[in-house]
Amino acid sequence: MTIFALSTSPGRGAIAIIRLSGDQTAPILEKLTGKPAPEARQASLRIITEPETGDPIDSGLVLYFQAPHSYTGEDMAELHIHGGVAIVDRLLDVLSGLEGLRPAEPGEFTRLAVLNGRMDLTQAEAVADMIDAETMAQQKQAFRQMQGALGVLYESWRQKLATSLAHLEADIEFADEDLPGGIGQAVLGEVAALSDEIAAHIHDDRGRTLRHGVEIAIIGAPNVGKSSLLNHIAGREAAIVSARAGTTRDIVEVSLTLGGVPALLADTAGIRAAGDEIEREGVRRALNKASEADIRLHVTAFGVAGDETTSDEARFQEGDLYIANKQDLGETSRPNTLNETDFFCVSAETGAGMSHLVAALNTRVQTSFGLTERPALTRTRHRIALQAADIALKRGLERAETGAELELVAEDLRLAMREIGRITGAVDVESLLDIVFRDFCIGK
Ligand code: GDP
């Protein structure tokens, strides 16, 4: 069966691209253009007609890719036509009427690419990330993953395990013979090192944070200027600024880009012990937000009594910033528990100190959550598999230490290999396709 889909976004545009994939591609091109399929990979201008009537639909570029040198690994074509709604609709209609052709399912082109070994699952996921990327850091991360950086890393771990397993099995097999001893021990050393590497990778969550956005919560007592600060940082009137205490009862969030990294900045209800039920709910949510956030901006202000709610969620953690606002009214001195680099004197009213604060925030987000050279864990799916792999490895090591049979240790290594193989699709690819392609759109 040959599939087709509009691969550009629907609606009016200069150009629309319809893709075809499958063994009927070349005959269909001939039917549509009255000429044989063009040379592979050469753009050719053709008149596209309705095969039945010969009525012209549009003229456009036709590209033909011969299997296996195509995105899907099958014969493929791209029809670059004018992006008018009527033209696209008509051509899609004509294609639907042709024998051996059917509309593609969401993500089907990429799914075929995986099935035909053109890319692994992490690369397919990166295609989706590439399309969804909204900031430069997201796009860079997606691109690297699409080029295979993450898949190569996971595959190298699987290969290492395969080697360790082979050594261990040799050890088991020739246990009674005169082999130089100690292979088992060497293997266990390798496995322990790999387990550490995997654990460190799981711990480094920046890849996922980069995909979803860094969460920053602004917290502090009512009236210290949290909403004003949010507006200043976000550069627009996103939160209502009011002189009455306790106005921001719910959470106002703005998304912005800091140091190339997507961030969600949340203005929370002023944290204070008093207040009515609605306000208490606001405070509860604020504390919740504060505890979940990657970075907290703790705000105080000159002349505003800090309501000392010393709740755990609101405590100052490493990486947080402390902002003393309303410095136009008077000077706040730095609490001696704080580093100079974490303490900022500003005035949201006059703007004093604000550019310094925003610059520091950019740098902090970039260094803590920005891209590094090492490929980072990007998806929960990967993390779950890696955790399962690491549990198996640690169990194997423990067994070996307590003198259990080496067969059991080997079984743990096999399990770990399988889990890692599931990330790239080297193992179990069929059963993983639905999960990976759940969020894909048509034409991808
Ligand atoms: P929130 O309750 O913490 O969100 O505080 P708001 O942002 O609503 O500000 C409370 C009041 O303080 C408003 O009247 C603001 O105009 C005022 N305010 C905010 N920042 C400053 C500042 O830096 N200096 C002065 N003088 N007033 C400020």
TrEMBL record:
UniProt binding sites for Mg(2+): 227, 248
Record keywords, A-Z: Cytoplasm, GTP-binding, Hydrolase, Magnesium, Metal-binding, Nucleotide-binding, Potassium, tRNA processing
Note accompanying the cofactor annotation: Binds 1 potassium ion per subunit.
Positions bound to GTP: 223-228, 242-248, 267-270
Domain TrmE-type G: 213-366
Subunit structure: Homodimer. Heterotetramer of two MnmE and two MnmG subunits.
Function of the molecule: Exhibits a very high intrinsic GTPase hydrolysis rate. Involved in the addition of a carboxymethylaminomethyl (cmnm) group at the wobble position (U34) of certain tRNAs, forming tRNA-cmnm(5)s(2)U34.
Protein name (database record): tRNA modification GTPase MnmE
